[in-house]
Amino acid sequence: MTIQDALYDVIGVGFGPSNLALAIALDDAVRRRGAICAHHFIEKQPGFIWHGGMLLPDSDMQISFIKDLVSLRDPTSPLTFINYLHEKGRLEAFINQKTFFPSRVEFNDYLGWVAARFEDRCSYGEEVVAIEPETAQGVVTCLRVRSRTGSGGETVRRAHNLVVATGGSPRVPAVFARLGGDARVFHSARYLDRIGELGLERQPAGRVAVIGGGQSAAEITLDLHNRFPELKVDLIFRGHALKPADDTPFVNEIFNPDFTDYVFGQTAARRDAIIREFRNTNYAVVDADLIEKIYAILYQQKVRRCTRLALFGRSEVTHAAAGADGLELVVVDGIAGTAGPRRYDAVVLATGYDRETGHRLLSALAPYVEDFAVDRDYRLRTRPDFRPQIHLQGTSETSHGLSDTLLSVLAVRSQEIADSLLAAKGRRGAPPDRRDIGPPPRRFAVNDD
Asked: What are the protein's UniProt keywords (predicted)?
């Protein structure tokens, strides 16, 4: 059964941090400017959670808490991380830790605290399956957004504009693709969901392989070592060594919002060179303190003459097969050129994410879109006979810089997109009848909890 829902000014696909920041920016426009902008979000998860599979007990954020959803744009907002701490009664205790980096568990709780304010603006448990044009006299005037629940129920909502922020899709190397149905092989995104189902605590001779050389791979390696006292863990990665992330002050300036202007203003070749130059801030790198923890474990193993954790750098898995008694990987040493089979009870793929640029979801709109390129305000370039605006969040690294997939620019980017959406509404003229767009956005009190 298909339900026909309302006409909105804006529909957001996905309700992670990017669209959550946009919800704040749009609400601020309502409170401060008296603007009317009916907006709604659709999220396929049953409730709000941020990287739930990687909320490890000892993992910390890698950026300052000040780069929350709103502080860089409006530090007086009631939805800052600081006010979250105040409302939770933990502000003084957090200060006493003398750190800029909260735990990932706490930051997820902050995001959920904010998301709860917008619960009436988000439909959880629905996956957007199609975006379709609605035309009048040869002009696309609005969009039909089709979403589906797990039980098969379908809803069609209409929108003047769209903001797509669906996040990344787990990247699975081709050698493991055909083992996708095996519960013993899974991506790091599902780590906490899966690791407790394997019975590793009952296997004193158990062995797990972690594939990857970045932060997630290192965190999972350490967690497995600590979680299962007898488990053997092999970390397999292509690099010569685990490399530290460069988070020094001058380099960190590439994540400042104004650096986005600089990157966008360059030629395509120059943008690519900038991204390659600074890849060691974000890709295949590990926090220095985590590297030191792993090195200390390896050193103590030498002292005790035992080996539970092993690092295999310069290595690549060339074959993977599943059997009743385990998983067999063929691992090639890139320098020695030697290869050999190894048996594991589980394999965790900490192999990163692919950023879907909208081609699949927006395929029905392809005739109206110009090469899926975006303008400075993250708006897709479209033909003159296409009136809706479509903004993309988190897929514009090649044009806007390395910060695009990270939290660093959320507060400012959301304001830029909100301004663009409100300007589009102004060009359309009078606001739609409120009977068509649902209730007005909720207003917040500072101490609303």
From this structure: FAD, Flavoprotein, NADP, Oxidoreductase
Write out the DSSP string of 364-388: GGGGGEEEEEE-TTSBEEE-TTB-S
Mean pLDDT for 225-242 is 96
Distance between CA atoms of residues 229 and 378, nearest Å:
48
Domain contains 256 = no
Q: What is the C-alpha to C-alpha distance for residues 101 and 59, in angstroms, rounded to an integer?
A: 10
Q: Identify whether the C-beta of residue 401 lies closer than 8 Å to the C-beta of residue 263.
A: yes
The number of angstroms, rounded, from the C-alpha of 315 to the middle of its chain's C-alpha atoms is: 28
Structure tokens at 269: 């070749």
Give the chain's end-to-end CA distance (angstroms, integer).
37
Tokens encoding 49: 């959670």
Q: Residues 118, 203: one domain? A: no
- Tell me the two tokens of residue 332: 């090639």
* pLDDT for the residue 449: 33
Angle at alpha carbon of residue 165, lines to 159 and 166, rounded to 5°: 110
Domain identity same for 19 and 112: yes
The pLDDT tens digits for 54-70 are: 999 989 999 999 999 99
10 Å CB burial of residue 269 (0-12, 13-18, 19+) is exposed
d(CA 57, CA 103): 8
- From 322, 349, 376, give the residue that closes a domain: 349
| Tokens 């995104």 sit on residue | 189
Q: Which amino acid is located at 277 in the chain?
A: E
**pTM of the entire predicted model:** 0.91
Does residue 431 surpass a pLDDT of 60? no
pLDDT in tens, 293-318: 999 999 999 999 999 999 999 999 99
Orientation of helix 410-428 relative to helix 257-264, angle to 10°: 70
Locate all alpha helices (DSSP H) within 48-142, ordered by sequence: 81-88, 91-96, 104-115
Q: Where are the alpha helices (DSSP H) in 188-318?
A: 191-194, 215-227, 249-252, 257-264, 268-277, 288-304
Q: Which of 314, 349, 384 is the last residue of a domain?
A: 349
Which regions of 114-256 does DSSP assign to beta strands (E)? Answer: 122-124, 126-136, 139-149, 154-164, 168-170, 185-187, 207-211, 232-236
Give me the helix-helix angle, 410-428 and 17-33, nearest 10°: 50
pLDDT given for residue 4 in this prediction: 74
Residue 440 has which token pair? Answer: 């007005």
